[in-house]
Structure formats: structure tokens, C-alpha cells
């Protein structure tokens, strides 16, 4: 593409489509990352198994669809309580014991969890790629010369709604305030009489509910297979760090930035390099603004 | 001498047994497993220099491993020289990379540092995969086997001793860190960096020192691995899985102890090998059961034995002393 | 401390020794001949490894119904090769503990390289059925054989199809064809794509409009790439996909109304896998994939012995899986069948006798499963011309054989691919 060529209608179309692609992709990334920013932000736990919960959500959508012909949008409502419970159980069985241990112990606990979940899926459902093909999968909306995939648009809207809901929850409910307080300073929170164990349990459960239901939403767009989580886990961390820990709005914005870097990078330099760009961005942000582009300065050192 | 025996007795047993084994055992699979135990142990000990002794927990050490592996493989296949020269070049490049990571360690703490090291290793992975003209890209590099010491074409017994040499090297570095002034200062940095800084310890320089030393040792082992396995694939040598493995052995065995990484390697490598051998041949549908067991074991060990195996030993010793 | 270390070392030794007598379990005297099977059964390649193992088991049963090998029942010692280190280690175990003299497998280039090194060092025969690394046979290793063509061969066949069949039907001369190369970034994609590029340019002068690689495991959106390619207006898209990426590209190309005249792929993954059809149904119509024969394949075009075994193979796969053989089955299965032919001839697994039998084998196209022939080069590579490959096309939910035309009753449709909603 010759940059010297003036922007004709064709180029504007391309730009518009790229912009749409960025926004929609950003929506998916936000969906996947919002749960992580909650967990990482409040508990300061690097959950290596984050992608696996997404994968489980995808399988839930698949089995519901193939066994009972349930549309993923219906399953979405069911998946939120289901994964909330999954989060509670996981916390009780796995995370609670290591909450007060060193970071390394937490990291490796989740590494073990990740291995277990991936292989449970492999043994139970085999490594074959599965697909969820609801009737609305190929529906596209057209506005001018630009195309919007309906499933992606819905995912984006839900991401926005979910982020908004979580922001509201964190800001205006008692539980949310308690969670934020614990995130700021665990010891002070305990001194204030806050039951940090309950806070962590709730945060973890909400985070897992978010990522599990994200899996249900993205299942129609991608294949479902045991290592599907790998597609998203590293970039979720990039998003979370960019946006600032525990900052829902930051996660949304971080997702858009990562998506923009990917889309622009792919278009201008080729798809092979897209990850390099956001990893480099990640390292740069870590070096110059570790609290994230939107986080409070110095917040990253708290509780670490 | 007596105190040396008592304090280093464990190491004497482990390395002594390893040295003696090729003389009594001819079974190639056993020797191969021993090579892997020693090599993974050495890599974990190298990781331990930065992670256990300096407190800089990285999950990106595969960066240095991959650099070492590629340096050796490229030196042999592309430049027609020996792997030893490749190893040297790998060390130099890894030290450079180590400076970068060291720099990061001075700016980031805990999980942030860990994440940045992951990003670094992935950047290397992608870069190497794309640089087809030089590194053969995603196709990887098959490393030829030419018998002889200069070309690292050794037999099974030879490889046990080679891996043992690497293990001893890394062990010696760890011991040095435990007994030297530098090591004490590093311990101070690890325990409370601010206090150490207040005492006048050059914390930043020390952290970079630890990371680059760790990088160099990892790179050496990476070069050895490339010659041993004979195939360098970028998606494997720079993978997060490998980085996790190096850290894992050290943590399970006991971070910050010299023998810990080796104990961890013995346990984890043996467990993994045994489980894979026993379960992978079972009905097609059950491949993966051994990994479930492995992952569960990991969770349990990390939860209930956080000091690692060396920690158990220390606790037993104190209990005995009080009895 | 010494006591603890000692305990741990002893425990570890016990584990590695496997809790069984540390004597080599050699060939059982109960009339069984065991070979080693090394495939990725866990990890990201598990879906294909499983299929290869299935194909091997099916053909093993066929072989045993026909008298086994060297008068004994053929049996497997299966090992999981998740990564290069595991591949080498498990190869070691198969050789040392299971006492196999022949190892077969291994699907992926990263695995076969490491495992074959181990086999060579122990003077064990390595019978590869699938990995496509062109350097596999050129490392100077003894007793390493490959029944399938390598990546160069795939690229060769693809370009052959494009130049000799597609171009005329598009009313274009090969050197007028604009071709776009898109590929996943692993050894497989790189190998096939680079060899196709070379042949397309050097031999036919095709105009390459773009070359794009990507990582199939982290690919979430192909819109930017598609938008770029739309502007370059290629006639043919040569896309090597691995899984999800194929579905993503095809679906998003339809959304963006990216029109091109043909898409050509090679191999049993991505476009060539059953999953592609399952994901897209009739929307998959038109895609070409270089593979082993599918429906439409004229058994009559094979020689009599070829017809027999191909028919038996298909029936057996149908019975076990309920469907037509997939690429993974066909590659692994035919590799094993060829092994049987060699062993029948050599009546021994001694490497030198084995090698002599391998070199002596000379069968024309149409003689064995998949309509292959066999003739090995000095380097142990089955010849391109004998390993007949076929171009299949997705037609109404099925991958059917369309080329070379003498081998099939069906014909390629939708050349050029018209508008997206008119491919019925």
C-alpha cells in the first residue's frame, strides 16, 4: 500500500473496516480480561489457569449446543451462576491454601491447575476441534461499506455491559468498596475488621464467572479445543497490566489498545509480527508506567 | 573436613551416585533419564541463582536456554565450527540479554517482573521463528551428531559425565554465592531490598550481576541440550513451559538452597518420566491422564511443602537437634 | 541431609526403573512382533496424533488378519511424544526397555528429528510416515526412512495442480496468474509454502502478490490480512492452515466479500480436516486440499492388489470410526502397510537386510493403500512420483477427489469461485 497515495474512497473503506475490526476484537479481549483484572488486581495472584476457565466456558457452550441445541446467548445466563460456583469451588480447593503464601507458590499452583484442566478436557472430550454454529453466526450487518459480524457486535456490547456492571458494583456497593480496600492494603483491611478471606473468595468467584461466561460468548467465533485458552491468556495479561490492576475501565481501554496494536501491526507489517508489537508495548509500559496507562502511579508496588 | 561432609553430604551422595552410575548401569534409558535429571537440575540451579539467591523470580529463562541452543546449533550447521565455540557465543549473547532482564528487575517487582520475562521470551520466540534466512525459522535446526568430544558427540556414559559437569558447575556457583561476601549481600537484597540499600549495598548492580550470571549458566546448558537432543525448534526452546520447568524444580526442591534444584529435578523428572511411560500407552482416549496426575501432584507439593524438599530436611534436622 | 537426599535418590531410582525388573523386555516368545509407535497424544498436536494412532491400529489389525509380519502377530508399544525432549526420551525407552527394533510415527517435524537421532544411535530402524521436514533424510543418519513425501513434494503437487489444471480452466497462462501465499508459521506451513513459492516462481513465473505468515495458536482475527489481500486482487490464494485459522480465514473472507478464484491448501490439517466441514457445512464449498484419496476415488484405477487392500482399509475405517478415512489415518496406515511389505520381503529386522529389502521394493502407482506405489531413494525417501497425491475439494460437506482426473469419477467445480452465496 503506497502511503503517498491520497486517501480515496477505497482506502477510507479499509480504514473504517480496520477501525471496526479493532473495536470488535477489543470487545472480545475485554470480555476475556475483565475477570483477570479483578483477580489479579485484588488478589495479586498471577492465575496461569485463566485461559483454561475460558476454555471450559467454550466447552459448556459446545455441549449445550450439540446435546440440547441451546443457543449460546441462552447458555450465557446459565453460565454466570455456573462459573460463579466453579470459582467458589476452585478457591476453596486450590487457591485458599496458598493465598498467604509467596507469589511463586501461587504461580505454580495455578500452573498445576492449568495442566490439570487442559488434560481433563483432553481426556474427557479428546483433542478434536469442535464448533458451535448457531444460526446467527454468519449474520453480518452492513453500514456503508463496512461490515459488522453480528456475533462479535453482541460480544462487544455484552463486554461493555459487563464492564459497566462491574464498575458499578465496585464503586457503589458495599462489597465492591470492601474489595477495593482489600486491594489497596490487605493488612489495613484486616485491621479494619474486613474478612479478607471472604473478599478473596468473592473476587475469585466473580472473576471466574466473568471469564467462564466470556468463553460461552466467544465459542461461536473460534474453535473449541483443550488448549484454546492459550490463544488468549498472555494477551489478557498485557491488557490487564496496560489498564492498571483492578481497573475495569482500564481493562476495557487496554483491550482496545491491544486490539489496535494487533490490527494495525497486522495490516502494516504482516500478521506474523502482531504479537511482537503488543509484547514490546507491554515491556515498554512495564518499564515506564508499570501501574498501567490508566492506573494510579505506584499502585503496582502495593501488596507485591 | 567433617563439617564439609555434614553440610555438603547430600550433594556428595547425589553427585557421587551420578558419577558412579555409568560404571555399573548400561541401560541406555536409565542413563538417558539420568542425563535429563542432571541437565534439568543444572538449569534449575542456574535459575536459582537469580530466583532463589537474588529473589528475582523469572518465568522467562527459556530466553537464555534458547539463545544457547541456537548459538550452538547455528555455529555447527551454518558456520561449520564446533559447538563449544557456539556455547561461548551463546554465553556472550545471553549475558547481553541478561542485562536487559536485569534492568527490568530493577524496575519491576514480583509478578510484574515475572510477566515481563515471559514477554521477553515470547518476543525472542517470534523473532527467531520469522528470521528464516538465518535461523531456518519455524522449521528448526537439526543438529548433526558427529562422534567426538570436540563436537559433543558422546555416548550415553559420556553424556552423563557432561551433564554432571554442568550440574557441578552450577552447584559450585550456588555454593560460592552461599559462602562469599557477594552472596551475603545478595541474600540481603533478597530479604529486604530497602534495608540492604540503606546499609550501602549496591542492590541494583548486584541484581543485574545475579541475573546475568544465571543467564550465562542457563545458556551453557541450552547449548549442551541442543547437542544432546539434536533438534532445535523455536516453539519449544523459547517456550513458557520450559521456563516454568526450570523454576519449578528449584521451588519444589527448595529455593535459595544449593542442592534444592537437584532434589526437585530428581523428583519431578522421575515422576514425569515414570508417569508418561506407564500411562501413555494405555487406550488412545486416556493419553493425558499422566499429565492430570502430574498437575495435581504439582499443586499438592507446592501447597504443602512450600519450603521444598530441602526445607523438610532442615526441619527434620532441627527437630533432631532438639530431641 | 545425606539421609534425606539418599532417600530421595533411591525413591527416584525406583520410579525410573519402573518398579519392574530392570531387564530388557525383549520380543515375547508368544508369537508377537512388537514395534514402537511414537505419536503426540497430548499437547496441541494431540488431535492429529490420535488419528494417526487410530490409522495404525486399524492397519495393524488388517495385517494380523493376513498373517502378521514374519509369521508373528504385529503388536505396538505406544509412547507419547509431547515435545522434542519427550520424543527423544520415549524413543530411548521404546528401544531400551521395550526392546523394539523398529519405531514408527511421528507426525510432526519437531518430534521426528529428535526421535530419529536416538534411533540412529542405537541402530534401530526409524520408519516415518508423516513429518515433512525436507532435511529429515539428509542428515546422514542410517536406517531412517520416510514413506510420505516431504514438504517440497507438497508444494510441488500444489503448484502442479494450479499450473496444469486451474490455470487453463481460468483461461490464464501460469505466468499470468497472481498468487497470494498465506500460511501458519510452524515448520509445516513454512516448509510447504516456501517450496510452493519457489516452484511457482522458478518454473512457471507466477506472480506472487504477497506472503504472510502467522501463528495459528494465537490468531484471533484475520480481517487486517484479508483487507490487505483484497487490495492486491490475487487470482489464487495458497493458504496452509492448521486448525482454527482456516475456518477463521474462510468465514471472515466471506464476511468481507473477499473474492478470489481459488483457494489451495495441502495436508490433513486445517482445510483438509473433517473439522473444517463440520464448522462450515456447505459454506466450505470450493476449497481445494492436497490429500490422500477421498470419495469419488476410482478403485478401478488401481492395480488389483491395490484395490483389494484399499477396499479393506476403507471398510475397516468405516467400521471403526463411521466415516471415510481421514488424512491422518491414510498416512499412518499406508506407512504401516509399506512396512509390512518390507518385512515380508526381508523376513528380518536386522538393519542391513531390512535396508536391502527397502531398496529392492519397486511398485508402480496404484499398488497399495491410497493408490501409492513405492520406490525408495538411497537416502530412504519414497519417491515423489510414486507417492501419488490427490487434490480434493469440499463439495456439499464432503471432501471429494477431483484430480488427477483419471483417478476419480468426480470433477472440480466452481472454477472460478463465484460470489460467495452462489456456490451450491
Number of strands of chain C: 14
**Distance N terminus to C terminus of chain C?**
75 Å
In the CATH hierarchy, what is the superfamily of the largest domain in chain C?
A: Response regulator
Named CATH architecture of the largest domain in chain C: 3-Layer(aba) Sandwich
* Strands of chain A, count: 2
Give an overview in words.
The complex is a heterotrimer of chains A (304), B (323) and C (424). Chain A has one domain. Helices cover 71% and strands 3% of the residues of chain A. Chain A is built from 11 helices and 2 strands. Chain A has helices spanning 9-43, 50-68, 72-95, 103-125, 150-172, 174-184, 186-191, 196-218, 230-243, 248-269, 274-288; strands spanning 140-143, 146-149. In chain A, strands 1-2 form a two-stranded antiparallel ribbon. In chain A, helix 2 (50-68) packs parallel to helix 4. The longest helix of chain A has 35 residues, at 9-43. In chain A, 58% of the residues are buried. The mean pLDDT of chain A is 86. By secondary structure, chain B is mainly α. Helix content of chain B is 77%, strand content 1%. Chain B has one domain (11-322): ABC transporter involved in vitamin B12 uptake, BtuC (Orthogonal Bundle). Chain B has helices spanning 2-24, 28-51, 62-77, 83-107, 110-130, 132-135, 156-179, 181-191, 193-198, 203-229, 234-237, 240-253, 260-279, 289-304, 308-322; strands spanning 141-142, 231-232. The relative contact order of chain B is 0.17. Chain B is built from 15 helices and 2 strands. A two-stranded antiparallel ribbon of chain B has the order 1-2. In chain B, helix 2 packs across helix 12 (240-253) and helix 3 (62-77) crosses helix 10 (203-229). Chain C folds into 2 domains: 12-128 and 299-388, Response regulator (Rossmann fold); 152-292 and 389-422, Response regulator (Rossmann fold, 3-Layer(aba) Sandwich). Chain C is globular, with a radius of gyration of 23 Å. Chain C has 424 residues and is α/β, with parallel strands linked by helices. Chain C is 41% helix and 17% strand. At the B-C interface, helix 1, helix 2, helix 5, helix 13 and helix 15 of B face helix 1, helix 2, strand 2, helix 3 and helix 4 of C.
